[in-house]
Amino acid sequence: MGSGQSIYAGTPLECMLNNWKAFRRQADYGMPLCKDALIKFCTVEWPTFGVGWPAGGTLKLKIVEAVHNVVTRDGHWDQYPYIDIWQDLTANPPPWLQECRAQAIRALMAQTPGQPVIPTAPDPMPPPPVYPGLPASPAQPLVVSPVVNKNTAEIDPTLELPLRETVGPTGDLTMIYVPFTTSDLYNWKHQNPSFSEDPAPLTAVFETLVSAHNPTWGDMKIALNTLLTAEERRLVFSKAKEGLVAGGVDAADVPTMLPETAPNWPHTDAENRGYHHRYALAIVQGMKRCIRKTPNWAKLYNIRQEKNENPAAFYERLCNTCKRYTDLDPEDVNGKRVLIPLFIGQSYEDIRKKLQKIDGASGKNIEELLEIALKIYDRRDDEERKKGARLLAMALKGESGKGGANTKGQTGVQEKGRGSRLGRNQCAICKEEGHWKNECPQRHNRREGKSQKLFAFEWEDPD
Question: How many CB atoms lie within 10 A of CB 444?
Answer without folding.
Answer: 9
